[in-house]
């Protein structure tokens, strides 16, 4: 009897494990995920407890197609509860059978033992589909929850327009002509070449030449210097990442085929089912992935890193006049900041990132406005987002001359839950581990800042550009860009 009862229990456990392993392997196979892919730990409880809050949040963020997901999750949760109750009933019946079998064995009731054994085997057969259904319902809740954007900060305007919250430097003393176009300036000073780049790579690509190439490196070095002075540790990240890492970070464009460069398999003998690799649109993706599947110590937080990288955006050529010049391009150099913090301390990291951004733009002499971005402008992962826009004379006919040059976002635990990044022994927590909050922001996006420097520093009379003083140490002794002095 003891042998039989152990066999029954083990069979039920093995069956449960097989169902879960089959479900997990099925999901990984369908998504081409490697075995090292982070396991997501999305908390569905707040969603099924208040589905209307999450539906409203989707609508406010312009994710209308996802607004019915919270209700589906609530319905799935009710079905899941029914399955759990049914499984509990089977468990209670199994325990009762074991007791009856023990008694029958003790008293030598062979006929009753045979009858109970048959019932136990039937119980095992009936249990398998119930457990598979329970596993599917649980994982379907998590899958749908992953499609929902983050909740939205109370600081975020619920509208389509941003709210001004500050400025950097005074506006120009006199109105600057829109003839101060960096494309024209780049041609006059032999700094930019879009024509040859179009022949080489296509529209939306460019060559930086002469002082413009030096300016790129100067901006990178200066941004790294300021970030490191604010406590950021320098990291050089890869430019290629698994697509599932990008998705976990919240990069879920409405039309991925037109916005992300995926790397095709070109070798005939290469595994066609291998995970998809993509060119990173921002260093935020590999920097966030750097701590995937890791457990951080709360004493080490905030952990703040800054990294230069090349970034790739496939959608650059789809904006007509907006895409001319350096403002919207397919490939560019950017210095990105990223931080992990304990929940409740994210504002310190956020303000540190904003301080770096303000310092860089203020010392470059650019006139900027600081904006609290509206809910409709937030991506999947952002809980709150602040953009800084610089004044471009060439854009005075579009958006009154303003153009985004930096962005900073708080993502709460959206990314860490999807990347399985944990923090150990967080203060004030009774749990052994929890999920840290992540914060990210641009230190400098080189092409746009370079364009702003060219346009705002242009001296039409002398046909030269004044180089910001803070960049002189990296400009080989040059203080101006003047073709006549070469």
From TrEMBL:
Entry keyword set: Aminoacyl-tRNA synthetase, ATP-binding, Ligase, Nucleotide-binding
Name this polypeptide is given: serine--tRNA ligase
Composition-biased stretches (Basic and acidic residues): 107-123
A Pfam family it matches: Seryl_tRNA_N
Region Disordered, residue ranges: 101-123
Stretches assigned to the Aminoacyl-transfer RNA synthetases class-II family profile domain: 178-468
Lineage: Eukaryota, Fungi, Dikarya, Ascomycota, Pezizomycotina
Broad enzyme group: ligase
Database matches in NCBIfam families: serS (TIGR00414)
Species this chain originates from: Stereocaulon virgatum
Keyword set includes Aminoacyl-tRNA synthetase: yes
InterPro entries, per the entry: aa-tRNA-synt_IIb (IPR002314), aa-tRNA-synth_II (IPR006195), aa-tRNA-synth_II/BPL/LPL (IPR045864), Ser-tRNA-ligase_type_1 (IPR002317), Ser-tRNA-synth_1_N (IPR015866), SerRS_1_N_sf (IPR042103), tRNA-bd_arm (IPR010978)
EC number: 6.1.1.11
């Amino acid at each position: 009897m003891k042998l039989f009862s152990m066999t029954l229990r083990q069979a039920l456990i093995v069956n449960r494990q097989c169902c879960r392993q089959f479900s997990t392997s099925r999901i990984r196979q369908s998504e081409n995920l490697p075995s090292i892919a982070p396991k997501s730990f999305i908390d569905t409880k707040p969603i099924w407890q208040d589905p209307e809050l999450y539906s409203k949040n989707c609508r406010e963020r312009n994710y209308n197609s996802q607004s019915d997901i919270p209700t589906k999750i609530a319905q799935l949760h009710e079905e899941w509860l029914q399955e759990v109750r049914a499984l509990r009933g089977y468990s209670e019946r199994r325990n009762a059978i074991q007791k009856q079998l023990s008694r029958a064995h003790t008293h030598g009731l062979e006929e009753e033992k045979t009858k109970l054994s048959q019932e136990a085997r039937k119980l095992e057969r009936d249990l398998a589909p119930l457990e598979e259904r329970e596993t599917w319902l649980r994982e379907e809740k998590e899958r749908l929850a992953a499609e929902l954007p983050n909740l939205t900060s109370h600081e975020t305007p619920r509208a389509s327009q941003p709210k001004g919250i500050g400025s950097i430097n005074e506006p120009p003393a006199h109105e600057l002509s829109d003839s101060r176009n960096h494309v024209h300036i780049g041609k006059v000073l032999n700094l930019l070449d879009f024509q040859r780049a179009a022949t080489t790579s296509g529209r939306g690509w460019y060559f930086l030449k002469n002082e413009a190439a030096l300016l790129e490196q100067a901006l990178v070095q200066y941004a790294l210097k300021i970030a490191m002075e604010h406590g950021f540790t320098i990291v050089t990240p890869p430019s290629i990442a698994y697509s599932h890492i990008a998705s976990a970070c919240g990069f879920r464009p409405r039309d991925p085929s037109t916005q992300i460069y995926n790397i095709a398999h070109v070798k005939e003998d290469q595994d066609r089912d291998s995970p998809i690799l993509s060119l990173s649109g921002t260093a935020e993706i590999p920097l966030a992935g750097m701590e995937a599947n890791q457990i951080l110590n709360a004493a080490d937080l905030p952990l703040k890193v800054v990294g230069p990288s090349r970034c790739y955006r496939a959608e650059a050529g789809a904006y007509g006049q907006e895409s001319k010049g350096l403002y919207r391009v397919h490939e560019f150099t950017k210095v990105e900041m990223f931080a992990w913090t304990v929940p409740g301390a994210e504002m310190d990291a956020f303000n540190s990132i904003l301080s770096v951004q303000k310092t860089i733009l203020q010392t470059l002499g650019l006139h900027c406005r600081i904006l609290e971005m509206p809910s409709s402008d937030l991506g999947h992962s952002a809980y709150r987002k602040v953009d800084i826009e610089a004044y471009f004379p060439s854009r005075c006919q579009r958006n009154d001359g303003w153009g985004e040059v930096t962005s900073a976002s708080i993502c709460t635990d959206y990314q860490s839950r999807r990347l399985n990044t944990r923090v150990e022994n967080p203060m004030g927590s009774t749990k052994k581990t929890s999920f840290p909050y992540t914060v990210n922001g641009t230190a400098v996006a080189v092409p746009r800042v370079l364009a702003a420097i060219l346009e705002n520093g242009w001296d039409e009379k002398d046909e030269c550009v004044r180089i910001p003083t803070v960049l002189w140490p990296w400009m080989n002794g040059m203080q101006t860009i003047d073709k006549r002095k070469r």
